[in-house]
Amino acid sequence: MRLIDHYLAGGKAPAAARKSPVFDPNSGGIQAEVPLGDAALLDGAVDAALAAQPGWAATNPQRRARVMFKFKELVEAEIDSLAATLSREHGKVIADARGDIQRGLEVIEFACGIPHVLKGEFTQGAGPGIDVYSMRQPLGIGAGITPFNFPAMIPMWMFGVAIACGNAFILKPSERDPSVPVRLAELMREAGAPEGILQVVHGDKEMVDAILDHPAIAAVSFVGSSDIAHYVYKRGVAAGKRVQAMGGAKNHGIVMPDADLDQVVADLSGAAFGSAGERCMALPVVVPVGEDTAERLREKLLPAIAALRVGVSTDAEAHYGPVVNAAHKQRVEDWIQTGVDEGAELVVDGRGFKLQGHEEGFFIGPTLFDRVTTDMKAYQEEIFGPVLQIVRAKDFEEAVALPSRHQYGNGVAIFTRNGHAAREFAARVNVGMVGINVPIPVPVAYHSFGGWKRSAFGDTNQHGMEGVKFWTKVKTVTQRWPDGGVGDAANAFVIPTMG
Ligand code: NAD
Description:
Layout: E1 18-23, E2 30-36, H1 39-58, H2 61-77, H3 79-90, H4 94-111, H5 114-117, E3 121-127, E4 130-138, E5 141-145, H6 153-164, E6 168-172, H7 179-190, E7 198-200, H8 205-213, E8 219-223, H9 226-238, E9 242-246, E10 252-255, H10 261-273, E11 285-288, H11 291-306, H12 326-341, E12 345-348, E13 367-370, H13 377-380, E14 387-390, H14 396-405, E15 408-409, E16 411-415, H15 419-428, E17 433-436, E18 452-453, E19 456-457, H16 464-470, E20 472-480
Parallel strand pairs: 5-6, 5-8, 6-7, 8-9, 10-11, 10-16, 11-14, 13-14, 16-17
Antiparallel strand pairs: 1-2, 3-4, 4-20, 9-19, 12-13, 15-18
Helix pairs in contact: 2-4, 2-7, 3-4, 4-6, 6-16, 10-11
The chain binds nicotinamide-adenine-dinucleotide.
């Protein structure tokens, strides 16, 4: 069986005692195995990172940026094969896999500007003969723990900024689709990053715990489901680390009575069912405002859902492919059953979907629920599959309250032609990222990504200036160059002020 090995400075890792299968979601078979590393393996990676980091931090930022430029060039040169590999392990269609890589590259483009953003601040004459300046210095070694659903973009969110800032980085990608993260690390080395600056260790909870407990790792960035994000946050902080831990989501799309419903249905189809709903910025809940809007929306949604093409991830005509593995397929189908048991109206049932010639693949047909209510578990929890729920709101106030009160607060969208309503909604809703007539409001790379409530633990977002802040610490220098005389000795025992 093919092994997708760790990527470590100094070459091959010792044979692993434990391994995990990597499935082919299109066929349902196992295509490779991934070793599950332990604390001893991590120790070796940390030693190599410790050896490499000071030299990298001392490399001027313009040279570090050149490595980022080169890395971007190398990834672009093989984006087709990277997308094919990603799609084969994840199950998302090829065009979407390219988007996954491209969104990550946009953070690398931001990182190419690191000399500019790392410039410190300076105050001349803060006091008599006194200047103050601050600088941003790297933390040392950072680690990233990433989910299966964006195996290229999310690692690049993290290591792009961390490495450009002068840190060494250890990535623990999802064990479900680990090939692309390994290839990205190889390309970073080829681009000129010294050995040990980007390493990939595979593993499960054992490796995650080793990362969280390792005294030489200064900061941990995590993206995954909320319970694990919360656990990672607590354990990492208890070990004295800086931690940002992004969690799950249940994003709502509010449809005002004046919205262009054809546009809404086109946007919703992609945002709810694209990537089989396996996106933290998917829109699995739609909230039509008023009964008339709900009826008109439902009428337009039905033919759009019937027209969706579910296919293998290499099918250029398919709107979406299989989910990542059999366990996840089962989990999504169990949630559909829970929705039925709780009394929601199952309008379109995607369970039992079989793709001809790929009967063992992990496919789920598009599913639509109507008359979903807030007391239902199937509404409160994240399903992470091709399942859209209609929650009817009587008015604008109720539509603002629904996402605001939900336990998750990652993203939300409002569809309307009314600028006042949109502005009011954006200001008042208790959610971290808002789209106005934009179904998937993922911020561009030079802004920053992060949800609220149980969608993110810690207070610093991913990428943009927030990312730079997370991966650096500020040092502030107060300097005085006396021109010979002795200072005011009488006041030497009083706290200095600028008064
Ligand atoms: P997951 O929580 O199962 O896994 C994430 C990472 O944690 C993986 O690297 C995994 O190996 C590790 N892990 C798994 N179990 C663990 C345990 N018990 N202890 C410690 N570590 C463990 O998430 P997933 O299924 O890979 O990804 C989907 C989830 O990620 C969804 O909830 C989705 O909403 C969320 N997500 C959030 C964002 C965001 O930015 N908020 C982005 C993408 C995905």
